[in-house]
Amino acid sequence: MMRVDALVAQLGGELVGDGSVLVRRVATLDQAGEGDLSFLANPKYLGRLKSSAAAAVILGVRSRDALTDRPRIVVDDPYLYFARVARLFNPAPMVVPGVHPLASVASTLPASVAVDAGAVIGKDVVLGEGVSIGAGCCIGDGVQIGAGSRILPRVTIYANCLLGRDCLVHSGAVIGSDGFGFAREKTGAWVKIPQVGRVVIGDDVEIGANTTIDRGALDDTVIGNGVKIDNQIQIGHNVRIGDYTAIAGCVGIAGSTHIGARCMIGGQAGIIGHLTIADDVVVSAGTLVTKSIHQRGVYTANLPVQPHADWVRNFSHLRHLDALADRIRALEKRLEERDSS
Amino acid sequence: MMRVDALVAQLGGELVGDGSVLVRRVATLDQAGEGDLSFLANPKYLGRLKSSAAAAVILGVRSRDALTDRPRIVVDDPYLYFARVARLFNPAPMVVPGVHPLASVASTLPASVAVDAGAVIGKDVVLGEGVSIGAGCCIGDGVQIGAGSRILPRVTIYANCLLGRDCLVHSGAVIGSDGFGFAREKTGAWVKIPQVGRVVIGDDVEIGANTTIDRGALDDTVIGNGVKIDNQIQIGHNVRIGDYTAIAGCVGIAGSTHIGARCMIGGQAGIIGHLTIADDVVVSAGTLVTKSIHQRGVYTANLPVQPHADWVRNFSHLRHLDALADRIRALEKRLEERDSS
Amino acid sequence: MMRVDALVAQLGGELVGDGSVLVRRVATLDQAGEGDLSFLANPKYLGRLKSSAAAAVILGVRSRDALTDRPRIVVDDPYLYFARVARLFNPAPMVVPGVHPLASVASTLPASVAVDAGAVIGKDVVLGEGVSIGAGCCIGDGVQIGAGSRILPRVTIYANCLLGRDCLVHSGAVIGSDGFGFAREKTGAWVKIPQVGRVVIGDDVEIGANTTIDRGALDDTVIGNGVKIDNQIQIGHNVRIGDYTAIAGCVGIAGSTHIGARCMIGGQAGIIGHLTIADDVVVSAGTLVTKSIHQRGVYTANLPVQPHADWVRNFSHLRHLDALADRIRALEKRLEERDSS
């Protein structure tokens, strides 16, 4: 329970209305009730604001007076402010230090570290203060993890990989598996190339559930600071990702591709190998990137969904676009010839 | 071993031919031999039926007399009948109650529950009668799972998620991981929004291997009754899926999208966030849905595969479709002008 | 540390220059220094070769004299030779036999086998000599794994599946989960069809992190010898894959599809069910295959990425391609009529 004026004193913003109102939770406009603080980030939802039972609301400057009967916190970026309040009301769970008797630990760990049941920690592992290793995790020999990082249950980190401070790794993620590297014999048989690089991950990185990041073949795979990686993502060997880039679910990034800083990669997008993507590039959902992108901006390649019958009718032409273009050229030529005759 | 007439007495259908024949297994027409019951669901495979060595066959009404030398069970829907026979011959494995000494359990469980080695069960977990928790599973604090549900090895269910009765969750699935929710600071840095909703799953739901379902941000992610979800699927926060909807492998569904009942989503399809999909919608494989769909029906957006050289020739025009359309317009105008001159 | 002439004596190739130089590591041209052996596989990187500090270099015949100041190994296929040297310098880690006290083993295993902490091995499991089972693995009843295979941490192999010799399975992989097989009742409810086939995997197969391979419905799912499968791949029930086929990350292969030998399937490609793909077929990244392919060759269906505004302008026509084709036809007809009038 917290007074709205105390919240503003701590996090900033302009308080309009009764600051003594108590809030204890954040909630959507539709679900909010007594004790709930809600927010309006998109003016499109002004109607929901009016019908909301929220005790207090975070608003942008333009919506300042959209509600006059309840306390408001007026800020430049309501969604960002909401994020800060949500963090204040929902702090990360406390790490309870200690090693569970059903864990297997072959390294010396700081007393502040928590290791849950079934976790297996190899030799020469270095964990920072307050690190927590969830149940069933497998942490390979020589791994280093910075202070404050939380590895949730059932994560694998292969030998010699490095994670920075304050990272959060979700269940099922695999960091440091072998890259897909083979040479081919004349018979067609594949000769495996040992993958001896590492994965090196910066500070404040979040890695989603069942995401996989391969170790480098010879050099390292490198993930910058503040990078956010959603679920079910595949990152190939020797990929490099710049700071603050965010990657949505189901994306695949093939080997040796370098992605700049502050990029946003939409869900199910793919980027083939050996490309360079500039800083501040946005790739739309479902887009396969097959060439390097050198200019910031939004890039797209996906198809308009249609009722199946329309799709059959329209898309059958895709097999013959070149013939269609030839027919246009022929028509132009015939008209040209007439005009000149 | 079971007589065909006993089978028909139990499951229905019309028996034609000798009911005393014994069957003990279901098999495809090609593989079937003595003691095997097979089925013909698609009249296209009539040839295989004739050459099959099956002891008895399940047939549709139209194929009633396609075989006259062997006992037949004639039914409306041979595939559905086959499914019922297959279940009769292959019942789910018995749950052997008991908690393995290498499991870690912090809640009070019914005596009928099975917990295998390496499983870790948190506090305040409520399991129904006959629930089985596979080896290496991690069940978070406050999780509730309905009677008869089977959680196969190496599944993670995060804190406070709810599963109904008779669910089947395959290995590697992760239920309740954080949704991908961040607000952006002016520097480009991301501020994590705590994900405090739950995942709420109905009865008789199957969840495939390595599938991930994120918990809601503020409200819940909700999966209806009888929903079938294949492997490698990503379901974002606050998604809602209606009863009996089936989703094939590798699909991604982005946050806050609501999908109706009895939909079928093809493999590798994607649905972006904040959309509404009506009941009884079929989305074809590989289709990215970028707009809400309000009418039942089949929807498609994928490309015809071609030999690479043809693809290069045809698809190069896609970058210039607008110019092509302009040239058609110009031709029409020139002819128009001539006609009117 | 190894002399270059000793390396050539062991692995072949033509030595040019001082054979007494010592090498102990493989490295990229850019990273190589003293003691490093590098390679030039693509003549495009000749510039990097000249500036490289590598102690010795593997070269193709055409680049034989591109460097004259350092020892060279001249071979037909520098990348393949590099792979062999890399394997020589980086042998697979020794398996240290023994069963960890925190493992749970219900079968009799050869003394040469290693089973790490938290692994759970069912009844009637048959492991070949020198097999290693990583931490947290779950190996179901009746599984058989050939000699020399390494199962890395947190892999699940369901009951009765077979793996050949010298396989390598990465963390998070799931082998033998149920195929996605259901019959539909008139109400829309799904009746599960028990999946009673197995997964049968050949020798020298590598399976990537978090990849899933479903067991067959009635018959088996079959993976040939020397097949290489990357991360995050889904292989449906009753799929068959021929020898030496390689499949890149995030691919989905739907049920009952048969893929030939020596195929290469690009990342994020998809193949729908019940198709046949010939030997030596290459499918480009991101391509959805919806028809069988009977001829070897390269097949493609993906879209050119464009700046978003260009994409909007060009791709809006895709919804109306049929109308565009009609307009071309109408123009042709009008010119035809004129010519004949």
TrEMBL record, chains A, B, C:
InterPro entries documented for this protein: Hexapep (IPR001451), Hexapep_transf_CS (IPR018357), LpxD (IPR007691), Trimer_LpxA-like_sf (IPR011004), UDP_GlcNAc_AcTrfase_non-rep (IPR020573)
Keyword Glycosyltransferase attached: no
Pathway(s) where this gene product acts: Bacterial outer membrane biogenesis; LPS lipid A biosynthesis
BP GO annotations: lipid A biosynthetic process
GO function terms (MF aspect): N-acyltransferase activity; UDP-3-O-[(3R)-3-hydroxyacyl]-glucosamine N-acyltransferase activity
EC number: 2.3.1.191
Record: active site: 237 (proton acceptor)
Gene Ontology annotations for the cellular component aspect, listed alphabetically: membrane
Keyword field: Acyltransferase, Lipid A biosynthesis, Lipid biosynthesis, Lipid metabolism, Repeat, Transferase
Annotated UDP-3-O-[3-hydroxymyristoyl] glucosamine N-acyltransferase non-repeat region domain residues: 21-88
Enzyme class, UniProt record, top EC level: transferase
Keyword Lipid metabolism: yes
Reaction catalysed by this enzyme: a UDP-3-O-[(3R)-3-hydroxyacyl]-alpha-D-glucosamine + a (3R)-hydroxyacyl-[ACP] = a UDP-2-N,3-O-bis[(3R)-3-hydroxyacyl]-alpha-D-glucosamine + holo-[ACP] + H(+)
Record PROSITE patterns: HEXAPEP_TRANSFERASES
Family: Belongs to the transferase hexapeptide repeat family. LpxD subfamily.
Subunit: Homotrimer.
Role this protein plays: Catalyzes the N-acylation of UDP-3-O-acylglucosamine using 3-hydroxyacyl-ACP as the acyl donor. Is involved in the biosynthesis of lipid A, a phosphorylated glycolipid that anchors the lipopolysaccharide to the outer membrane of the cell.
Name of the protein this chain belongs to: UDP-3-O-acylglucosamine N-acyltransferase
Species the sequence originates in: Parazoarcus communis SWub3 = DSM 12120
Gene: lpxD
